[in-house]
Design brief:
The chain has about 350 residues and is an alpha/beta fold. It has 12 helices and 7 strands. The longest helix has about 40 residues. Bound molecules: NADP nicotinamide-adenine-dinucleotide phosphate. Keywords: Membrane, NADP, Oxidoreductase, Transmembrane, Transmembrane helix.
Length: about 350
C-alpha cells in the first residue's frame, strides 16, 4: 500500500509521459488507452462545434456570405505539365484534358507536356491526344510535347518545369513497393530489402514530387513578383492511405504531401500579391492502374473506380480550384477511422497488415 502511494505520488509529481519508469509496461499502455479514449470522446463533440463555428465565421463573416451558394466556375488552363503521364491516372488526365479542349468553344489554344521515364508510352499517348483534338481544332491550335525524365533527378525536373510558362503543373508520379517488387511476392524479400525498397519508394513519392513542385512554386512567385497576374496552379498527387500513415513510407510520404500542399496554399493565400497562385492536393482511393494491378490483396481494394472517372473528377476539381480534391471515397473513410484508433490498437493493426 505504501509502495503504491509512493508510486502514485511520483507519477503525480512528474509528467505522465515518464510514468513508464514507475509502472509495469502493460499497465502504462492500458492507462494511455483509457486516456486516449476519454480524450477522443471529449474532443469529438468539441471538434464538431469548432468545425461548424469556423465554417460559419469564414463563409458568413470573413467572406460576407457571397461565395456560399455560388457554384464554382471552371477555369481553362492552357499550358499544362503532367508529370507521371505514361499510365494510369496521369494518362487518363491527358486524355480528359484533350477531350475537354476539343469540345470547348471558348479556349483557343492548348499546350500539353507529358513526362515520365517510359518515352514510348508517352509518345503513344501524344498520338492519342492529338487525334482527339484534331477532330475539332487545326494543328496550329495545340502543341503536345514529350519529355523523358526520372522525378528523382532534381536538376532535370527543374529544367522541365522552367521550359515554358506553364499555368498548370501536376506532380502525379508515384510508385508503391508492390510495383517495385515486380513479379516477386512480399515473402520473397528479406526485411532489410523491404525497408530499403520503402526508402526508395519515399524518394519517388516525396522527393520526386517536391522536385517538381518546389521549382514550379519558385518560378510562379518570381513571375507574380514581376507583375504576372494570370492564374497558375500546382497540384500534388497524394493518396487515401495518407490518412493512416503508419502503414509504411508510401502513406507517410503521401501524408506529407497533403501537409505540404495545404501549407503552401495557406502561405500564398495570406499574401494578396500571390492571390493568382493556387496549390491543391489530389487524394485518390483505389483507381484501376498499373499501380493497383500490382497490389497483392485484391480483396482490400474497396471502392475501386476507373482511371477515366478518376481523371474526370480530378480535372473538374483542378479547374474549380478545390484545395483538397478528395476522390478516395470509402477507402479514405476507412483510413480516417483507422487514424482515430488509440496507438495500441493501430499498432496491432499495422503489424497485421505488414505480415
Ligand atoms: N491507383 C491507385 O489506386 C492510387 C491510389 C492512390 C494514389 N495514387 C497515386 O496516383 C498517382 C498515379 O498513379 P497510378 O495509379 O496512375 O499508377 P501508375 O499507372 O503506375 O502510374 C504511375 C506514373 O508515375 C510515373 N512514375 C513512377 N515513377 C517515376 C519516376 N521515378 N520518374 C518519373 N515518373 C515516374 C510513371 O511513369 P514512368 O513509368 O513512365 O516513369 C507513371 O506514369 C501516383 O502518385 C500514385 O501514388 C494511385
Amino acid at each position: 500500500m505504501e509502495q503504491l502511494k509512493q508510486t502514485l505520488t511520483k507519477i503525480w509529481q512528474e509528467p505522465i509521459l515518464v510514468g513508464h519508469q514507475y509502472l509495469p509496461p502493460k499497465i502504462y499502455d492500458l492507462l494511455w488507452n483509457i486516456t486516449e479514449g476519454i480524450l477522443t470522446a471529449l474532443l469529438y463533440p468539441i471538434c464538431i462545434v469548432v468545425g461548424v463555428v469556423s465554417f460559419l465565421y469564414y463563409n458568413l463573416i470573413k467572406k460576407g456570405g457571397k461565395d456560399l451558394f455560388k457554384s464554382s466556375e471552371e477555369y481553362n488552363y492552357e499550358k499544362i505539365l503532367i508529370v507521371g503521364s505514361s499510365s494510369g491516372i496521369g494518362r487518363s488526365l491527358a486524355l480528359e484534358i484533350s477531350s475537354k479542349f476539343a469540345t470547348r468553344k471558348n479556349q483557343k489554344s492548348l499546350t500539353l507536356t507529358l513526362v515520365g521515364r517510359n518515352l514510348a508510352a508517352n509518345e503513344k499517348l501524344k498520338e492519342e491526344c492529338s487525334a482527339i483534338i484534331k477532330e475539332s481544332h487545326p494543328v496550329e491550335d495545340f502543341e503536345i510535347n514529350v519529355r523523358q525524365a526520372d522525378v528523382t533527378n532534381a536538376e532535370r525536373m527543374k529544367e522541365i518545369v522552367n521550359e515554358m510558362d506553364y499555368d498548370c503543373i501536376i506532380a502525379n508520379a508515384g510508385v508503391t513497393i508492390f510495383v517495385m517488387m515486380g513479379d516477386k511476392k512480399p515473402s520473397e524479400f528479406t526485411t532489410l530489402e523491404k525497408i530499403q525498397m520503402e526508402f526508395k519508394c519515399w524518394e519517388t513519392n516525396l522527393t520526386g514530387c517536391t522536385n517538381t513542385a518546389f521549382p514550379a512554386i519558385e518560378r510562379l512567385i518570381q513571375d507574380a513578383d514581376n507583375g504576372n497576374k494570370k492564374r497558375r496552379h500546382v497540384i500534388l498527387t497524394s493518396s487515401g492511405t495518407a490518412y493512416f500513415p503508419e502503414m509504411g513510407l508510401y502513406p507517410t510520404a503521401k501524408s506529407a504531401l497533403i501537409g505540404i500542399a495545404r501549407n503552401l496554399r495557406a502561405k500564398l493565400e495570406s499574401s494578396p500579391k500571390y492571390s493568382n497562385l493556387r496549390v491543391s492536393v489530389l487524394v485518390p482511393g483505389w483507381v484501376h492502374s498499373s499501380m493497383s494491378k500490382a497490389f497483392p490483396a485484391k480483396e482490400m481494394q474497396l471502392g475501386m473506380i476507373s482511371s477515366e472517372l478518376a481523371a474526370k473528377l480530378t480535372w473538374s476539381g483542378i479547374e474549380r480550384d478545390f484545395e483538397i480534391i478528395d476522390i478516395s471515397g470509402v477507402w479514405g473513410l476507412i483510413m480516417r477511422v483507422f487514424l482515430k484508433f488509440p496507438f495500441n490498437l493501430s499498432s496491432s493493426l499495422v503489424a497485421l497488415l505488414d505480415r
